[in-house]
Design goal:
Layout: H1 3-16, E1 20-24, E2 28-34, E3 39-46, E4 49-51, E5 58-63, H2 92-98, E6 109-113, E7 117-120, E8 125-131, E9 135-144, E10 147-156, E11 160-165, E12 177-182, E13 186-188, E14 191-192, H3 195-201, E15 205-206, E16 212-213, E17 221-226, E18 231-236, E19 245-246, E20 249-250, E21 258-262, E22 268-274, E23 283-284, E24 289-299, H4 303-314, H5 317-320, H6 330-341, E25 349-354, E26 357-364, E27 375-377, H7 381-391, H8 394-397, H9 401-411, E28 427-429, E29 434-436, E30 442-443, H10 445-462, H11 467-483, E31 493-495, E32 501-502, H12 514-523, H13 526-544, H14 563-578, H15 581-594, E33 608-611, E34 614-617, H16 618-621, H17 637-640, H18 648-659, H19 662-672, H20 703-722, E35 727-728, E36 749-751, E37 754-759, E38 765-767, E39 772-778, E40 782-789, E41 795-801, E42 805-811, E43 816-822
Parallel strand pairs: 14-15
Antiparallel strand pairs: 1-2, 2-3, 3-4, 5-6, 5-11, 7-8, 8-9, 9-10, 10-24, 11-22, 11-23, 12-13, 12-17, 16-21, 17-18, 18-24, 19-20, 21-22, 25-26, 26-27, 27-28, 28-29, 30-31, 31-32, 33-34, 35-36, 36-37, 37-39, 38-41, 39-40, 40-43, 41-42
């Protein structure tokens, strides 16, 4: 509509009184009709698609008294009274918070209305208003491309607690639903009558219109796609939701934004609530005002482009990378962690007796079944053997690896019974003299994939002639084949006492099949490849396509977690060895889905914050760019925030190179770069959880191996991407449990067509620019330094060698340079 036409229309409305109003541009057209009840939406068209406009009224939630904080009994909301069980003490507080009357959208009363008045404010803006006994409200609607920006302003006439839901725009029947998504917490193409499995695990949409918190919603948006291809998202404007840290205080538990896939009446409709009833800002005295700014966005390409739009165009995710700077490079941290890991005291390394054999591992002070602060564990065997190979350090090769190898050999069940070949458990208890799983007396097939096949497979890459290791791989892989069901799946677990099924209410939506991929690559027997195919085919049908996943952390009853990213890498590797593209396609879909576990909010800034006695900038400690250990309503992110262990970073770089998805590349870099506020200065070890800030390894000293692994994987992925494949090194197997990073250094790679072997020079190399990373390799004739610029500005770096002098290198934004020096 032209400005002159809009002016004439406004004049006619003033003179004669309008009965219809439109907001229209090339992307979106909405038309309202005045009725006896007030202004009602008459038609919605977007991107050439017509939707059914809703007849539902607008609403406000009200409670005269503060809503209760107690959890409701399962009988009142259709929950499973036996899930989660009482022994899951880490998730109980979050479960109770998620089942209050407010969280279940049962608190207060719903007051409904249709706007009584409408005023056009130009050709792209209409202001609606309503005046009532308890409240007055204005609605300011404005078109901005395919976005419809709205601001609600409520004035209380009666003291009490208020919450403003976003108005419903279109009617979508369940039969017309293609997919609904609240990133990080809800996803599905159907309404699941099993409330507990839907709510805890994200297996479909809960049948109750629950409200999720912004602390676990990675993107502050609720999205819905219909079968005819229309996607509608409603997204809060920056500043509405609480930030995880404000000033000098942690504020991640402040609940200011509720997100739902339904309205209060249980109708499918992306819906946001602000303030949340009974929470901060909801108490209002007569005459007080509250505003709520949000936007509707229409799309016709599905949820992934919509997520890109919200992340980048609303929350400036990509722009936020420009603020990131390092105080210490990732390369420097690798050398610091080498020193940490070879110090028995700092790394809590112990050699103990296990059934007559000396085994070595690190002390683990987190929660473990039957443990009394006596648990020992090793983390990333690939990283252990890699560090030994790259450094040649006898503190690793002679004082760590032999005893870690013994730990692995004793970890396998070899009793000749039904569990022969299975993992006996992740942890060795020095007092009880036994191996145990994390949270109970059960045996998981996925644990055999992790702690037998992935770990032993990585040892075999570095020790290809070790017949004992190869035999253990065969034994474990045969156990996986014996326990694989005809449809390709596995049980989640077996009870130790009698071998019966444990967790029968769950399905093994995890990359258990990957153990057979390892066995095939090491042993070459086709039966393992065939078993891997069967397992992957089942996983694609049952998990990838419907977006149903299960986690691998027993202490949270397997809430979905980073195992999803592992599944994507596992599928990609299966595609590479089988030549079947369907596995690569499934890997891409899974990678994009895992991206919903990465925070895209809050907007990064240079605001000053204070953490104890440290003066920092907001971007340095913001959750933006970090991923979950496990999210949803019971995952650890509720209590501790996301994690710094960015195992997915290298995988995201590789997938970005394959798919061209810039958001995946930005997410990888956001997770890896500028995270010094969480790193212990002395050891170079980052804290695991965001909430721990810079406390370092804490009770998890073995995490330094995982950090060594993911950083190396990420830097090599960046080198390969930026060199267009001219820098490439063979990759080993996925690390157990925490994500998809892989090991390197067991075999030479190529640099510009020349065979080269990765090395490290502890004490023999340094770089004066923390925004420049460096990897080292050697050929028959040269020492090669691969330098990577971490930031979007040109950099100059001085690389100093004990034996090769100083060398100055110039790098373009996100650039790469190769320095070749004659080998001495």
């Amino acid at each position: 509509m032209s400005r002159r036409s809009a002016t004439l229309l406004m004049a006619a409305c003033v003179a004669f009184g309008c009965t219809a109003l439109e907001l229209r541009n090339d992307s979106v057209a909405l038309r309202w009709q005045k009725s006896r009840q007030g202004w009602r939406l008459e038609s919605v068209k977007a991107l050439g698609l017509a939707a059914t406009p809703t007849s539902a009224p607008h609403s406000v939630l009200f409670s005269a008294e503060e809503p209760g904080k107690d959890a409701l009994s399962p009988e009142t909301f259709g929950g499973d009274p036996n899930c989660p069980e009482s022994e899951y003490r880490y998730v109980t507080p979050s479960w109770k918070e998620a089942t209050t009357a407010v969280a279940l959208n049962k608190a207060g009363d719903e007051y409904t209305y249709f706007p009584a008045k409408a005023t056009r404010k130009g050709d792209d803006r209409i202001v609606f208003s309503y005046e009532g006994k308890d409240f007055d409200i204005t609605e300011d609607w404005r078109l901005q491309g395919s976005d419809l920006c709205v601001e609600l302003t409520l004035t209380a006439n009666t003291p009490g607690y208020y919450s403003m839901p976003t108005p419903k725009l279109i009617d979508v029947d369940e039969s017309a639903l293609d997919f609904a998504l609240i990133p990080g917490v809800l996803h599905g193409s159907y309404i699941n009558p099993d409330f507990t499995r839907a709510y805890i695990y994200g297996w479909g949409i809960p049948a109750t219109p629950v409200l999720y918190r912004e602390r676990t919603a990675s993107t502050h948006s609720s999205m819905l796609t219909t079968n005819d291809g229309l996607t509608l998202a409603v997204t809060s404007e920056p500043g509405v939701a609480s930030e995880p840290w404000t000033g000098s205080e942690r504020t991640s538990n402040v609940w200011r934004l509720g997100l739902s896939a339904m309205n209060r009446n249980g109708e499918l409709a992306p819906t946001l609530y602000h303030p949340v009833l009974g929470e901060e800002g909801s108490r209002m005295e007569a005459g007080e005002k509250r505003s709520f700014a949000f936007r509707y966005t229409f799309g016709d390409k599905g949820w992934w482009p919509m997520l890109n739009h919200v992340a980048n165009d609303v929350y400036g995710f990509g722009e936020g990378l420009k603020l990131r700077r390092n105080r210490r490079s990732l390369s420097d941290r690798l050398y610091a962690m080498h020193r940490y890991l070879t110090d028995d005291s700092t790394s809590m390394w112990h050699v103990v007796d296990c059934e007559g054999t000396p085994i070595g591992a690190q002390q683990y002070l987190g929660g473990v079944y039957r443990a009394k602060r006596d648990a020992l564990k090793n983390a990333d065997y690939g990283a252990m053997w890699m560090l030994g190979a790259l450094t040649g350090d006898t503190l690793v090769t002679e004082r760590r690896l032999p005893f870690a190898r013994n730990f692995k050999l004793k970890q396998q069940n070899t009793d000749g019974g039904e569990m022969d070949g299975a993992s006996r458990g992740q942890y060795w208890l020095t007092n009880s003299k036994c191996f145990v799983e994390e949270w109970g007396p059960y045996i998981e097939p996925v644990a055999t994939t992790y702690y037998m096949l992935s770990d032993l497979g990585n040892i075999a890459l570095f020790e290809p002639d070790n017949a004992e290791v190869r035999e253990l791989i065969r034994r474990s892989a045969d156990w996986l084949l014996r326990t694989q069901r005809p449809d390709g799946s596995w049980k989640v677990a077996y009870k130790e006492e009698d071998g019966s099924e444990a967790f029968a209410d769950l399905k093994d939506y995890r990359p258990t099949f990957y153990g057979l991929v390892v066995a095939y690559r090491v042993l070459g027997d086709e039966k393992y490849l065939e078993g891997a195919r069967r397992g992957a085919d089942w996983l694609i049908d049952e998990a990838v396509e419907p977006h149903r996943w299960l986690g691998v952390c027993g202490d949270t009853r397997f809430a979905p977690d980073f195992a999803t990213a592992q599944a994507a890498q596992a599928l990609m590797e299966l595609s590479e060895i089988s030549g079947e593209e369907k596995y690569a396609d499934a890997a891409e879909e899974t990678a994009r889905f895992y991206a919903t576990s990465v925070y895209t909010a809050p907007v990064l800034s240079e605001k000053d914050v204070k953490v104890k006695d440290r003066e920092l900038k907001q971007w340095q400690i913001a959750t933006t760019g970090l991923s979950y250990e496990h999210g949803g309503i019971i995952g650890s992110t509720n209590l501790h925030g996301p994690i710094l262990l960015a195992s997915h970073a290298g995988f995201f770089v590789r997938m970005a190179g394959r798919t061209g998805d810039a958001l995946l590349l930005d997410m990888a870099r956001a997770a890896a770069i500028g995270r010094d506020a969480f790193v212990d200065d002395k050891t170079g070890v980052a804290s695991y959880y965001w909430a721990a800030m810079n406390r370092g390894a804490g009770p998890y000293p073995h995490h330094a191996w995982w950090q060594t692994g993911w950083i190396t994987d990420y830097l090599l992925a960046e080198a390969e991407l930026r060199s267009n494949g001219k820098i490439s090194f063979p990759a080993g197997f996925i690390t157990p449990k925490v994500g998809p990073h892989r090991t390197f250094g067991f075999s030479p790679g190529t640099i510009d067509g020349e065979e080269a072997s990765l090395i490290m020079l502890p004490g023999g190399v340094s770089c004066d620019n923390p925004d420049v990373e460096y990897l080292l390799a050697k050929t028959d004739n040269h020492l090669i330094a691969i330098l990577l610029n971490d930031v979007e500005e040109p950099q100059t770096a001085n690389l100093s060698f004990a034996d090769y002098g100083n060398h100055t290198v110039e790098l373009q934004p996100y650039g790469l340079q190769i320095l070749k020096l004659p080998l001495k």
